[in-house]
Amino acid sequence: MTIIPLYIQKFIIKLLCKHIDRQNKTLEIITDLDSEYRKNESINKKLMLSLALVCKDWFKTLSNNLTVSVDFNYKDQSSTSISYGNNNNNNNNNNNNNNNNNNNNNNNEINNEKYSIIKRENIKTIKLHHDYKKPYFYKIIGPGGGGSIRAPEGEKEITINEIDNRFENLIEYQKQLQQQQQQQKKKQQNENQLIINIPFKRVLIRNINIVNFNDNIDKLIIFKFKENEIVKSNIQLLELEINQSSNLKDLEKLKKRVTKLFSLYIHFCTELQEPVINEAFRYWNHSLNQLFVSQTLRITEIFSKNASMISNVKYLEIYDSAISLKDLTFLLSPLVFKDLHHLFVGICLRKLVYCLSDTQDKRSDCICNCLTSYSSINDTFKDQDSFNNDWLELKEMVTNKNKNLTLESLFIGNSCTTYGASLLWSSEKFKKSFINNFTCFLSWISPLKKFSIHGGDNSIILFNIMENLKNIIYFESMVDQISGSVDDYKFKFNSFISKNQHIKQFKLLKLTVSNNGFSKNSLIDYKNS
Predict the structure, then answer these.
(1) What is the H or E stretch that residue 462 is in?
(2) Measured between alpha carbons, how far is 117 from 46 in angstroms, rounded to an integer?
């Protein structure tokens, strides 16, 4: 049996360490095409453990070359251990021990540090997944949005206090580590030549709002100094929320700390926040990849003013707003988003069904005017004419004007200025003429791979799309109402999916509205690997 020389084994492990670090440093953008965030982290953990358990030399090489810690567990005072991942067993044990066991605890911590795969002195990058209680990227806010966050499957549920403590622990750990490095440097250098190295070269944080972040980050010493010269922080941030509490002063403070911002969440903003939004677009346009908008007026005007600053955005979701056909045409225009891959919008499905149905199928169930550019709510003939013109403009945009359309994922939800988001319709409400015309619209978007819809019992719409548009292979349906029993409904979908093998993924969710908000009940989660 041929044995590879040890120096080659170590070289291979070092390459694997670079791969693991690179994967762990990634602030992975969640899209509907691949919503299993943190799957790679689990794979990396298993790889690390597999390598570490082979032999002592492999463990040592691995431990000496890993520099990224995902999430953070740190015990203050006498202990300086740091653990990988979300395993909080060491921290929880402290609460159960009494003072008589302190010496044993300290010895255990020394041993834990000795056999820890990731050594605290080697850490250059820390990635935190929680900073405040609105994890929009997870899209799993618990019922009522109370004091806890529903963690991803397999993860520990984390309370708000624990999240706050994690950030405070990072601050305390940073201080101690910097003090240790300062003492070491004093032994080697004259005080006039003192250089304090950055304990962490990079801090990656998933989601914050401006006010809370600035209060905490002032305590966290991320920068280094040489002869009193402050060097800019290197914080990479996945999501920033701008709301009615945001102002330019706080944003200017944040700009000095955050080098890259990947996602902006614009929530309940008025004209007073437009300068803040515009400046965020301008400063982070090179890295901005995703936009989330909720309950904010004039958003298309804001986008239009900043077209050159948001052209790199690939992922756009607009909540709690009923957009018009002209708005949809604008969003799909190459003049604004040149490389848009995912779009989530809400439109009035009642009005859309009426306008796209043949004359004999028309039934006016809504008098809102949020779908068309015509302002009157009483003249159905002019309303139809206006819709027809806007519909032709939309078709012209996606078939001719934007020949480089890159849209792969489209989510259409029901949103109406009169009736809101709920649509308690049976499948019979969606007439055949509407279904054919709507399917034709989706066929105009040639790159489309995923389609999601929310509103009523939309099964008959999806069946027609599945059967006629084979390029769409990912489907998601959120229904407010089910025709018949749940078992019969699931059987109907499963039977249809089995006959259409091109479908790679299908999710069926039943939405239930209550006083605490809404909850999702998964009925079907199909994957064809």
Answers:
(1) helix 459-468
(2) 12
- Whole-angstrom CA distances from 364 to 95, 379, 413, 495 are 64, 12, 19, 34
Whole-angstrom Cα distance, residue 293 to residue 101?
52
Cα 145 from chain centre: 17
- What does pTM read for this prediction? 0.73
pLDDT in tens, 114-145: 778 888 788 888 777 644 333 333 322 223 33
Q: How far apart are CA 197 and CA 199, in angstroms?
A: 6
Q: Which residue has 């008589």 as its token pair? A: 100
Answer yes or no: are the C-beta atoms of 472 and 442 closer than 8 Å.
yes
**In the numeric block, which tokens belong to residue 131?**
């900073």
**Euclidean distance between CA atoms 498 and 503, whole angstroms:** 9
Distance CA 455, CA 425 (A): 8
Cα angle 476-445-304, degrees, rounded to a multiple of 5: 100
- Predicted pLDDT at 454: 94
* Angle subtended by helix axes 248-255 and 210-217, to nearest 10: 50
- Distance (Å, whole) CA 413 – CA 283: 32
Could you report the per-residue pLDDT of 443-484, keeping only the tens digit for each? 999 999 999 999 999 999 999 999 999 999 999 999 988 878
- Helix, strand, coil % in the chain, rounded to nearest 5: 40, 20, 35
> What is the rounded CA–CA span in Å between residue 287 and residue 27?
12
Separation CA 342–CA 450 (nearest Å): 9
Listed residue (14, 111, 19) closest to 58, CA to CA? 14
Q: How far apart are CA 514 and CA 148, in angstroms?
A: 19
Longest Cα–Cα distance in the chain: 90
Beta carbons of 123 and 82 less than 8 angstroms apart: yes
CA-CA distance, 379 to 386, in Å (whole number)? 11
Q: Say if CB 199 and CB 178 are below 8 A apart.
A: yes
| Token pair in block for residue 86 | 């979300």
Cβ neighbours around 139 below 10 Å, total: 12
Residue of 336, 332, 299, 498 lying closest to 412 (CA atoms): 332
Q: State mean pLDDT over 355-364.
A: 88
State how far the Cα of 259 lies from the Cα of 287, in Å rounded to an integer. Answer: 9
Rounded distance, CA 67 to CA 84, Å? 11
